[in-house]
Give the backbone structure.
Amino acid sequence: RGDEYIYRRDLHWLESSDFMLADVTYPSHGVGYEIAYAQFVAKIPVLLVCEKDTQVSAMLSGNLSVKGYRDLADMKGILEQWLEDKRVPQEIP
């Protein structure tokens, strides 16, 4: 399976999602594209997370909230609070 398959698959995932959670600890062209697509095309809520003390692009932090986490439990708490604030149905194991 090639690049076009991955592109179509990932956009399908975004189109069928209620929200997007993206870890932006490490820069990625693909993730940046997906964030913009989620926000402006699919029009779904976007939550960005990163490891604490990570320098995140101003193109992201100037437009969307970026929450820093220390570990998985910390990230789970951030996600649960965000979902509650957005009133997005949640089932987090």
About this structure: The beta strands are 20-23, 46-51, 66-69. The longest helix spans residues 72-86.
